[in-house]
Amino acid sequence: IDAANNIAVPADSADLDEDGDTIERTPLDLNEKQRFINDVSTPDTGVSDPPDYLEIVDMGAYEYQCIIFVDTMAPGADDGTAWKDAYKYLQDGLADAAVSGKDIQVAQGTYRPDENNANPTGTDNRTATFFLINGVTIHGGFPSGGSTSAGRDPSAYETILSGDIGTEGGDTDNSYHVVTGSGTDPNTILNGFTITAGNANGTDPDNGGAGMYNSGGSPTVTNCTFSGNSAGGNGGGMHNHNSSPMLTNCVFIANSVDHTSGQGGGLYNNLYDSDPVVTNCAFIGNLAGCYGGGMYNHQGTPILTNCMFSGNVITQQPLVGAGGGMYNNSGDSILVNCTFSGNQAKDEGAGIYIDEGNPSLTNCIFWGNDISGRTDELAQLYVNNGSADINYSCVQGWTSGLGGTGNIDADPMFKDADGDDDVVGTEDDSLQLLLGSPCIDAGDNNSVPADFADLDSDGDTSERTPLDLAGNARFTDDLLTPDTGNGVTGYWDIVEMGAYERYEFCGSGAYPYPPGDVSGPDGIRDCYIDFHDFAVFSAHWLEYTGPE
């Protein structure tokens, strides 16, 4: 298994999979089952053929079948053994995985939790949900007809898990929870899906977690978008009850909870054992009636790194409602390199409201959060019956009354806070920093946490988080900006405040060299390479005080 040589596999001259491609390497084995499959439990000892054939072929005429395939458009046997014979319904794939323990690959299309082979038109049962199988990985984002992992692209091949059962387009009869991860551990992985149209308007526990509900479960959720989910109680996008999922590269957008009393429009974390690790996630345009438009934390210690909160709103009228971006209730949340902008509330703390607990906020930006036209410090963050440890952060209207080190009150100079559509709380909001921002090289490297999610896929989870929310290098030096932050051994280039490193632009395209890289010849970024650039390079060369 995984011990042969991909380069030796000949072209598919017979077009075994009938896809018209006779140039690809032969994709099927003697049983007409998928050829290039990776068995994660077996060390690779063969030879891959990157970039298209990363999964190593097995020796012999037959491939060990360790993957279940799902494709709503598959024409074949509907048994999940190959792309052409893929299950048409994800529920059938999950039922197979519950017995076999195999991982699942899902092609683009829309899948509903009440549909399976026995009920192709659905059951209209609102309790129907995609229940994750402990230890099983589910990858979406494959093209219809399938491909190797190299051809997978969740943004191009959207794979939708939809709670829109019953009457199409209406939400009163939708699934209470589109996905359920209760009782799972971090080896349970959901990667590359859009989760939408859940409506948790029932009684507890069916009044929260419309997109995803976790009770006593801590799955790993990566590259997923939670959009258009609503709940009558708490947690429109996701509800975690004594659960600590790892959320990476996810987007929570346009989710909502009850417009009079709901909490946690995007994400709701409940009780002391709810300590999710949230990395490189965006919370955009979520609504809550009472507290926590983007996120609500009740006790627990969630860790957020490189996260962005934009245009989240508290809707309750006329006066009550706080924490447009986030509401922290009796918890010790840890926020590093997060940006809050354009969030709204009726009461104090449109950016973040801290009610008891002792959260830590470092390298963060709170700017442009609004309470009925007010954008002072109390509109950005408010501490009530608790404390907050705030350092190396940019806070509009900062009075220094909350103490801390390295905090500033200066326009962070966002690229375009409301995006091309001039509407805050939509996907085109750009909170990257323009050149000249006072937040550049102003953070604290020592506070950047370990790369728990292995964002750069190098296998090193002990290094400090190396990438920003846009996937750009985190520790870079802007040669034109004085360092006002704090460097540490091994990380001499100082991190920016906020979720993004600076945005560099030259002419009609993005700056072609890594930000602050002295190997980029245009050192002063004026789109000309001349003696001035050499002077800047030389000056910084002489200034360098790091290790040899």
From TrEMBL:
Residues 1-21 are annotated as: Disordered. InterPro entries: PbH1, Pectin_lyas_fold, Pectin_lyase_fold/virulence. SUPFAM superfamilies: Pectin lyase-like. PANTHER family: BLR4714 PROTEIN, MICROCYSTIN DEPENDENT PROTEIN. This is Right handed beta helix domain-containing protein. It comes from marine sediment metagenome.
